[in-house]
From TrEMBL:
<dbReference type="InterPro" id="IPR022935">
    <property type="entry name" value="ClpS"/>
</dbReference>
<dbReference type="Pfam" id="PF02617">
    <property type="entry name" value="ClpS"/>
</dbReference>
<dbReference type="GO" id="GO:0008233">
    <property type="term" value="F:peptidase activity"/>
</dbReference>
<dbReference type="GO" id="GO:0006508">
    <property type="term" value="P:proteolysis"/>
</dbReference>
<comment type="function">
    <text>Involved in the modulation of the specificity of the ClpAP-mediated ATP-dependent protein degradation.</text>
</comment>
<keyword id="KW-0645">Protease</keyword>
<protein>
    <recommendedName>
        <fullName>ATP-dependent Clp protease adapter protein ClpS</fullName>
    </recommendedName>
</protein>
<dbReference type="InterPro" id="IPR014719">
    <property type="entry name" value="Ribosomal_bL12_C/ClpS-like"/>
</dbReference>
<dbReference type="GO" id="GO:0030163">
    <property type="term" value="P:protein catabolic process"/>
</dbReference>
<feature type="domain" description="Adaptor protein ClpS core">
    <location>
        <begin position="18"/>
        <end position="96"/>
    </location>
</feature>
<keyword id="KW-0378">Hydrolase</keyword>
<comment type="subunit">
    <text>Binds to the N-terminal domain of the chaperone ClpA.</text>
</comment>
<comment type="similarity">
    <text>Belongs to the ClpS family.</text>
</comment>
<dbReference type="InterPro" id="IPR003769">
    <property type="entry name" value="ClpS_core"/>
</dbReference>
Length: 100
């Protein structure tokens, strides 16, 4: 009788890695119109009107505000697109991306 042991000797561990998340931060400045900031927050970051108002006013009063969190490439693409849209109109609006 053959006694072949088919049991695997090593257990396989399935590792599911969640993507690290990055915050997109909105920085205040003295020149960009409030309405434009709200517009960008709605168009690029999909905030609704009241969320966009709160984020814009928080940055306006405190100097900085978290807009949202995303995987790194999404955060960087959105921040770059938002800055580019501001540059087109000559506004110095800035967004930064940092690990959560
Ligand atoms: N401080 C700007 C103004 O008074 C408005 C503004 C708000 C600009 C938030 C940038 O992230 C910002 N026109």
């Amino acid at each position: 009788m053959s006694e072949i042991d088919f049991k695997p000797k090593l257990k396989q561990k399935t590792k599911v890695q969640r993507p690290k998340l990055y915050k997109v931060m909105l920085l205040n400045d003295d020149y960009t119109p409030r309405e434009f900031v709200v517009l960008i927050l709605k168009a690029e970051f999909r905030l609704d009107e009241s969320q966009a108002e709160v984020v814009m006013m928080t940055a306006h009063q405190k100097g900085i505000c978290v807009v949202s969190v995303y995987p790194r490439d999404v955060a960087e693409t959105k921040a770059t697109r938002a800055i580019d849209a501001a540059v087109q109109l000559g506004y110095p609006l800035q967004f930064t991306v940092e690990p959560e």
